[in-house]
Design a protein that fits this description.
This protein is 41% helix and 16% strand. The chain contains 11 helices and 9 strands. The strands form 3 sheets. Strands 3-9-8-5-6 form a 5-stranded mixed beta sheet. A two-stranded parallel ribbon has the order 1-2. Strand 5 and strand 6 form a beta hairpin. Helix 4 packs parallel to helix 6 and helix 10 crosses helix 11. The longest helix has 16 residues. It is elongated and about 80 Å long. It starts with a helix and ends with a strand.
Length: 269
């Protein structure tokens, strides 16, 4: 029933404001036309309705929406914004060129015929980052993305965050060395090989909590899904389990898709 009064309420806005023009997405066409009907009912001249295409999100299927987890935030850091744009499909790239840049359609058609998709997508990412940040930030993001995903290096502009060990630590009384199949032994891949050999130095932590606390995801449920999809890397290792062992203090290079952060963890003082 809630769908019934919505177009009436939106349409009444047009009558109350005596609007001349209303702009909306193509999915709002019915509501916009309802405004015209209500204006006529109130003895007003009907507004002009302008509709705009709907921009698909990173999945290339549903409209871009923060609630669907497929959006690019206009206030996101340059590298994160650049990386998300680089993750879209080659086909969707042209849609973004049409709706998000000032490149004219004839030029876009020429690019489809004559340019390499990778370089063209890099140019798209650079353009959009420059629009919302600056040309300098776009250049920096381009360099850092190449370091991270083409050269295997850690970008210099990577974000650093600190996470409280107590917020991610597993509450367990048993010795974690009893059952190593229940957790991922990340401690074996940390630099401190001497301390890694002694289970007393291990700290059992939940990766889903770490991802949430470090700002990679909005909830532990989302984090658990990403872990199951093998989308999470810690110091270069795909971590397929929600629980892992680490040695603290440590600075972990954590990557979820195109997003990378250095996560600092230390024993509470």
């Amino acid at each position: 029933m809630h769908e019934l009064p919505y177009p009436l309420a939106q349409g009444y806005d047009s009558a109350a404001l005596k609007a001349d023009v209303e702009l909306g997405g193509t999915d709002q066409k019915f509501n916009l036309l309802m405004g015209r009907e209500l204006q006529r009912a109130y003895g007003q001249e009907s507004q002009v309705v302008l509709t705009m295409p709907i921009l698909e999100g990173l999945d290339g299927v549903q409209k871009m929406s923060k609630s669907l987890g497929n959006a690019i935030g206009i206030q996101e850091p340059p590298l994160e914004m650049y990386g998300k744009i680089m993750s879209i499909s080659d086909q969707m790239m042209w849609r973004y060129y049409e709706l998000l840049t000032d490149v004219q359609l004839p030029e876009i058609e020429k690019m489809k015929r004559e340019t390499h998709p990778m370089q063209t997508k890099k140019d798209l990412a650079r353009r959009i980052v420059a629009d919302f940040h600056s040309a300098e930030a776009a250049t920096k993001a381009t360099e850092d993305w190449a370091k991270q995903f083409q050269k295997g290096e850690v970008p210099s502009a990577v974000e650093h965050v600190s996470v409280d060990l107590n917020k991610i630590r597993v509450s367990a009384t048993k010795d974690v060395s009893d059952d190593e199949s229940s957790f991922f032994p990340l401690h074996k891949f940390q630099a401190d090989s001497v301390r890694a050999s002694d289970p007393k130095n291990w700290r059992l932590v939940r990766l889903d909590k770490l991802l949430a606390e470090a700002g990679f995801v909005q909830s532990r449920t989302e984090a658990a899904r990403k872990i199951e999809e093998n989308a999470v890397k810690v110091i270069g290792q795909v971590v397929p389990l929600p629980v892992m062992t680490i040695i603290v203090p440590c600075d972990l290079n954590v990557a979820l898709g195109k997003k990378t952060k250095i996560v600092s963890i230390a024993e509470p003082s």
